């Protein structure tokens, strides 16, 4: 059955291209005519084209968390989402993602979810339940798949489902969909992408069966679609999330994908959502270095072959991009699509559509696609939240209540003048300071930010200079726009102390002065930094701010997150150092946060990662052509382990691949001996330290103590001295807190009104997510 689609926007597509560039969001809502246009699918009316895509939050697994889940979705529905899609629920026990998860197959779940659907409907939004059978991605011993295989990202081998079990699984999907309708959902989204069970049946990579489910690999998907359609009421929507691009070896070809799309339409599916890449793919699909809407062409291609609505997704994070994707003007697809699905942008800003509608698109709290607090948390079995919006997932627990300016209750301190808003000084304009200032202003404080440097932004200002991290620029822009709307005054080039702030009449003082790079103790380092040697020693902050440049032969000391960032920066920055080989004008990056970044184009990115648009290529993969470093770069760390192990869970692998592919040399297990005119003197293990440390881990696992001792002895005592011939050493060796507090001169009562947050509080494991959360929690808790 194919539902009719009423598309009242189709006649006004000329307007759809009437918008500003993604760098400068339009403020006039009429620039987003297609995004804001209602559409009816079957009998269900969507009030606009923005769907909140599925995102597992960790609140799905226990029915007792349903009230929190309801509050989470209610905020997004209130903020304008046309529809929300839940995280994935398995139709049976075998398909649950983790051993603690509950399948959606019983009355308890139906009852728990009634509050979720009611909360969404209260705000004129539609609710979809996602049905996801994990297959071989299930993180438990009972995992099953089309054939007996093991996913490279799973520790558990899976067994092949029997013919009867496959047929039963089809019925389980139908049963869960029926229950979803009883719980009040408007539709289900059948998860057929990202390498989960249905996708495992679709691809020869994982389906080696010779029965009917293998002879026609699409049969399982089609049978599920038919069974679900037959089990649910006529007005209930069936959305199928297709793998529009597989990005794995032996994945489906585009030709197979288009055929499946037509088959699903015939099977009675009402709309097709987009999934891109398997979780085990070696091509990034959602992280910040993936160009915006890089895969909209694949969805547009499917749209040309079906008559039902299609939903574009992946790296759509601004209303301008959404508008252009819908209009078919993004990436010159020339094909209008029907919806955009955004998941993380709705975590970052639950008011996304409301802001567009009210002409405040520039205020949208910008998702930087970092994955740090959302997807990384999911994979670490922690509740998902958002780096730039710590309230996400904590809607009932972290609230910003308006203050009572005249409150003189026992826990409160009188405001500086009766009935006037209490005044808060935020010292430090890094992200902790800026997001903290916003939260304070939201509560009703009169806030002023004082920044010692000539511009605000702190670590984000540096991060935005890294190729692939350009989104940080827009995050800064949007928070500054919101601060402006809240009348928060920002004063730069003005160092400030708590004492001075109190003298100026502030009631609360928030110290958010951040960090400075750590200078390690290496003989000769001070002379080198003073320019006494041929070798320059500079900090990552000096490099990324444009204050100093690197030459053609660079050592990066420290291979943590920032060491990797610097390596990627140096790979792409032109190396036009002076003829003598010393540090020269190697790059032209400027510290100006208003400068528009120039991210890689979709074509450049496809070439770097080997993504092809050819319809006949399995998985749409071809030989990648990654950028190669134009200078000699060596990354160093003292630990003997492989470099980059501590990088973030879902993004670290991309950085490790990029740096290795660029030809950056990595040496672990080093001791820094001295710096002089010859370069950087090191003491290093004779044998490759990373290989030895891997062998140590293997021997430890096997309980071979003798081998462990032998290898450890080799690492420690079988070493040699060497000199690295470099012209520049970039220090990425961690940070120290910057805190010029004058606590001694404060009274005890004043000290209770000074609050130290972010890197100024704890520099170790400097973490923007922790800093922003601390800032918002402080603002929420201040007793006023
Ligand atoms: P980090 O990850 O802690 O790395 C610091 C590096 O410096 C380590 O390689 C450490 O390794 C070395 N080091 C520490 N003290 C040293 C000393 N006294 N002398 C010589 N070397 C020393 O810190 P970061 O790179 O500054 O990053 C800060 C935070 O931002 C981290 O939490 C990081 O995860 C996060 N971040 C993450 C990413 C990402 O995941 N892509 C990107 C940027 C930032 P050895 O001691 O073994 O030499
Ligand atoms: Fe976006 Fe990062 Fe927030 Fe996730 S944590 S929603 S990727 S800003």
From TrEMBL:
The keyword Ribonucleoprotein does not apply. Residues 1-21 have a biased composition (Polar residues). SUPFAM superfamilies: FAD/NAD(P)-binding domain, FMN-linked oxidoreductases, Nucleotide-binding domain. The keyword Acyltransferase does not apply. Residues 35-361 form the NADH:flavin oxidoreductase/NADH oxidase N-terminal domain. CDD domains: DCR_FMN. In the N-terminal section; belongs to the NADH:flavin oxidoreductase/NADH oxidase family. This is FAD-dependent oxidoreductase.
